[in-house]
Amino acid sequence: MPAEENEPLASPMREEEEPTETSPLLNRSDDGHHSDASEREQNGRVSTGPQSRAAWSLWSICNKKTSTKAPWRWPSIIAMVLLGIIVILIIILGFLVPPAVKEYAEKAAVLEPTNLSIENITSDGIRARIRANVYLDGSRVDNKNSRRIGKAVTGIMRKLETKETTVNVYLPDYADALAGAAVIPPLVVDVVNGHTNELDFVADVNPGDAEHIRKIANDWLEGNLKQLKVVGKTKIHLKSGIVPLGAHDVAESMVFEANEIPSMPNYNIERMDLHDRPVDGHGRKVIEADVSLKVHNDYPVSFRVPTLGFEVLVPNCDSSLPSISVADAITEPIDVEAKADVQADAKGIIRDIPESLTKACPHSESSPLDHFMDRYLHGEDAKVFVRGKKTNNTDTPEWISDILESITVPVDFPGRSFDSLIRNFSLTDVDFKLPDPFADVDDPEGEPRVSGTAQVLAALPPELNVDLGVDKLRSNADLFYKKRKMGELNLRHWQSANSTKVQDKENGETLLNITSRLVDVPLTITDGDVFSEVMQKLLFGGGDITLDIKAEVDVKLKTVLGILTVKKVPAEGKIPVNGFPGNALGKLKPQVGEIEVMETTETGIQMRALINLTNPTPYAAVVPYLSVHILHDGELLGEAISRNVTFDLGKNTNLPVLATWDPLRFGGEKAQAIGRKLLSDYVSGKNTTLTARTHKRSVPNVPIIGEALSKINITLPTPRITVPGEDEHEGEKPHFIADATFHLFSSTATFTLLSPLLYNTLYIEHINATALYNHTEPVGQIIHDEPFPATPGRSQTPRLPVIWSASSVGYGKLKEALGGSLKLDAIANVTVRLGSWTEKIHYTGKGIGAKVSL
C-alpha cells in the first residue's frame, strides 16, 4: 500500500526489495549501484523507462477519453530537478566548490523513480505521490582524485535537507511557455556513498496555460512533434543539520524524442445504443446514444477520472472550414486500475440536424454527412472529432475543462458492413414500357421503363432503436442473373415510400417493412445474351426465375429530429420473377378485326389492322413503338409495327398494328414463293403459322433489346380475320366462300364471297376452277378472265360460265340435287388484285354448300 503523507520522506539505508512496482520507471543512469555497475552498463542508458511514461500518459488518456495525452512527464521532470538538487548539495559541501567535488556530484548522483500514483484531482491541478530511490555511486566517477575527494566531503556532511521547493517547467521551443509547476515538500537526503534513500512524497502539480498545451497537442496529433525539450527551474534552500547553506538556483533540461512520447491507445467500442428520449411534456424528443468502450491500462497507475464533457464533430467539406458539431457527450466517472482494462461509459445527445451537415459542398452533390456515411456504410472507419466541452452540474475542475476545450482529437469511428441488410425484395403489379422512338438520347423516355410495387424487408442494425420511417427513396441498382449482370435500374427521381417496423421473434431482429410504388423506372439492358436467356426461360415455360439486385440506395428518413437524407446505403437482395404460364404463346389467341389497306405496290401491301390478343402473363406493358419481322419457314415476308399500345392483363381488343406484306422486297424471290403458298393455304382454310422476330431496329433507341430478343422466334397460328357483319364462332376455320349456286339451264354459277376488308375492294382478275364431288369426281369447270369486284363483307359474284362434265358421276349427282343442295369441293387458280398489288393464289375448298337450280 502507498505510504501515508505523514510517513518519512527519506529513509536511508533500507534494504532493496524484489523489483515489482518498485522497478525503475525512469532510468538515466549509465552504471549500476556498487556490484551491479557492470550489469547496468550492459542494459545501456535508458532515456525514459516505460513505467514512467505510463504515469502521465494514462492520466492524460483517461482525462480526455480518446483525446490527446500531455507529451511531457512530471515524474521525469521532478526526477531531473531532484538530481540537480543533489548535485548542488554536494557541490556546496566542497566549500570552495573545487572541480573534483563538482565532477563527483554530477557523475555519482543516481535517482530512480519507481512509482507514480495520483492521490487526488484538485481545483487547480493534481496531487501525485512519487516514489524514488536516490543514492551516490562513487564507482560512476572515473577520475580517482575526484572520486576520493567527493567521498570524503559527503562522508563528513552525511545528510542534507531542503525546504519546500517549487519547480517550474518551461518549453524553450514554444517561446519559453510555462508548461506547469510542481510543489515538492521538504526532503532529507543521505549523501554518504552507497546509502540508498527511498523517497516517498506527495507533490502538487499544476498545469500551465491551456493554450500552450493545445499547441503541443496539435503538433503531436498532426505528426509534427519530432522532439520536445523541457527545462526545469527552481530555487533550493539547503541546510546540513542546523547549519543553513543558503538558496541556490537550479536549472536542468531534458529532451524527449518522438518515439518516447506515448501514442494513442487502442480502444474497442463494446456497446452502442441509439434511442429516442423525450425532453419536455410537449412531445419534443432528442436522440440519445449510450456508448461503452474499453481501453487497456498498460501502466501501474490507478486513479479516478471525474465526469467529463465533450462535443462530437464531423469533418466539414474542406479542412479549412470548421468542423460541424453534431452531438454533446458526457462521461461517467472512470475508475482506472493499474495494468487492467478500463471501462468508460458515456451518454451522447443529438438535439438537431445542422443545416451545414446536409448541405451540398461547393462544386459537389455530396454533403459532409454523405462523405461520413459513405465510409461508415461500406464498413470503413469514418473520422469524427472529439473536443472537450464545459458542462454544468459536474465536479470537473475548471483547469481540466480549459485544457480539453482547447484540444480537438481525430477519432476513427468504426464502420459496419450492410451486406445482409435486405432480407426480402419483391416486385408486384409490374408494368413495362418500351422506349419512345422520338425521345432524345438522354431522355429517360428513350429507355425501357418498369413500374411496380416494391416491397422490401430490411434488417435494422441492433444498436439503432430510434423511431424512424422511410419517406422517400431512390437508387441505382444492378440486376444479375446467375451472377452475370443483365442490366441496370435507375431510380433517378425520388419515389414515395412508407414503412412499418416488424419484430422477427425467431431471429431476435427488428425489421423495417418498406413499400414503394415505383413509376417509370428506366431499365438499361447491358448484356443482351443474358437478357435473351431470361426471356426464353420466361416465355417457354421454364418456371420462375430469380434476379439478384445490388444497389446503392438514397433514403429520406423520418426521425424525431426531422427528415434526414442518407445516401448510398448498400443493399443486396433477390427479385423473384414469375414465369409465364405453360403454353403462354398458345394462349395469346390472336384475332384480326378491322383491316384497312393504306398503300399498295406491285409486290406488296401496307395495311392497318385492329387485332385482339389475350395477355396470359402477370405483367402489363406499354408499347410506344415496336417493330417485328414476320417470317414463315425461315423466310422474311414482311413487318408489323405497333405504336402507342397498352397491353393490359387478360383480353385486349382493337390493338392497332401497321403491317407490311412484301415478301419480294423483304426476303427475295424465295420468300415471294413461300408467301404465295402461305396465302394459298390460308384462304383454303389450312392450319398455318406466322413467326414474329425482333431485329436491331425493333426498339430504335435501344438496339440491344431487339438484338437480344432476335434469338427468340415467337411462332403463332395465323390470326383469324373477322369478316364484317358475320357471326364468328371460336375455333372455326377461316373461309372466304360462303356458298354457291349452280344454274343447270344457263350453265352458270354464282358464289357468295366473304371479304375481310372493311374499306377496300378486292378484284378477281382470273379464275380457273374445277368443282368436285366426293373430293375426286368432277362436276364442271369455270374459266373466267373478266375482272369482277369482291366488295367489303358479303358480296355476290356475277354469273360465271360453267363447262359441265356431263359424263361424270359428279355431274349426275348435281342433277339429282336439283331444287336442293349438296356439298362440293373446289380447286382453283385465282389471280387477285388490290390496288397495284396482284397475286396468284391456289385455292382448295372442301364442303362448300352448293344449291342447284334450273
- Overall mean pLDDT stands at 79
The portion of residues forming beta strands comes to over 45%
* Individual helix count: 14
How does the overall form come out from the CA principal axes?
rod-shaped
Contiguous runs where pLDDT drops below 50 for at least 5 residues: 1-72
Radius of gyration: 50 Å
> Which range best describes the helical content: under 10%, 10-25%, 25-40%, 40-55%, 55-70% or over 70%?
10-25%
Broad structural category: alpha+beta
Give the end-to-end Cα distance, rounded to a whole number of Å. Answer: 142 Å
Largest sheet: 15 strands, mixed
Q: Tell me the number of structural domains.
A: 5
Give the number of DSSP strands.
44
Domain Tag1-like fourth Ig-like: 589-705
Protein name: Pre-rRNA processing protein
Transmembrane segments: 74-97
GO cellular component, one term: fungal-type vacuole membrane
Describe this structure in words.
The structure is a single chain. This protein is an alpha+beta fold. It folds into five domains: about 35-260, no CATH class; about 265-415, Immunoglobulin-like (Sandwich); about 420-575, no CATH class; about 585-720, no CATH class; about 735-854, Immunoglobulin-like. About 15% of the residues lie in helices and about 50% in strands. The chain contains 14 helices and 44 strands. The strands form five sheets. It has a 15-stranded mixed beta sheet that branches. Strand 27 and strand 28 form a beta hairpin. The longest helix has 20 residues, at about 75-95.
